[in-house]
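User: Teach me something about this protein's shape.
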Amino acid sequence: MPGTSLDQLYTKVARKALTETLQVKKGDSVTVETWDNGIPFARRALAEARAIGCTGIMIYEDEKAYVEGVRRAPEDAVGVMGKNEYALLSGTDAYIFIPGPALGAHSKALKPDERDRSTRYNSSWYDAAQKAGLRGARLSFGYVGNDLAKVLGKDVQDVVRAQLKAALVDFGQISRSAAKIVPRFVDGAKAEVRTAKSALTFSLKGELGVEDGRIDEEDKRTGNNMTYLPPGFVSKDVEPESANGSIVLTDTLTDYGVIPRARLDFKDGRVVSWESTAKAAMNKIFDSVPPEERRLRALILGLNPELGYGLGQDRFVQGALNLGGFGFRGLVKKGTLKIDGSRVVTEGRLV
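Assistant: First, the predicted structure itself:
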């Protein structure tokens, strides 16, 4: 798609989101929520929804008004859902959300505590969405603003375009890849992640998640009724006290910028020491996490073959290994993953 215009990409992604991700049909009610930067996409999504025979409305979140509201409103009124929003969700079949850059971790529009306070409605929103049986899609290109693009060293439009192209991935291919992996990501399975200069072992235990770009009845039943676009990963919780060994991370995006390289050492699940080429950033991360909470808690395996590294969504890249739970998600680009001694990933490539 080298010659595809941004507007053409909006149309293609909107159609795919509606027909494949959300599986809307004539008569469905569709709500599109957008910030300033997502208005062109939201227009296309509404037009495509109405062409199918859906009823559609747009909610517009003005970024300047949002930021001012977070700072001036009484603290107990920030990040709270009102009866108007609950009623809207109860009457919505399909929901498309294009967030704004101000909600992203690297935006300078809000301080971290202000951002956390303004989004504390999350659990209430998801509970209401599940109760309503809503099917939803979140377009992650909305998080991309000048602040994030600067951290990534890229132009905003280049990142947006790349994410939109990756949203057009074959969902069937991702589902087939996930189907091969899910039976192996079971409680009690022994995992090993290796790089050229490190090896980390741990046990899998807990919640399993699949982001394949589609919302089905099982997703709605289990509360996983919002999916990312672009999609593509399988995640599994880790037994918190099981990690031992070390792991070398590369080009990891954190709240304090990109960490070019870091080595973490684990003992009985906890990070006990680290070294990094970005020592100041790593110190800030770990200073914010109590020692007893610096534990490996999740493994994420990326499945999207159309997405490249350095675009703000590295956990979705096919073959990427992300390890999280100790203050950030560490990226292993060319790692080898074994489950119960059998290879799932070899040097960054799915087996």
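Now, about its shape. The chain has a mean pLDDT of 96. DSSP finds eleven helices and 17 strands in the chain. If you'd like, I can walk through any region in more detail.
User: That's plenty for now, thanks!
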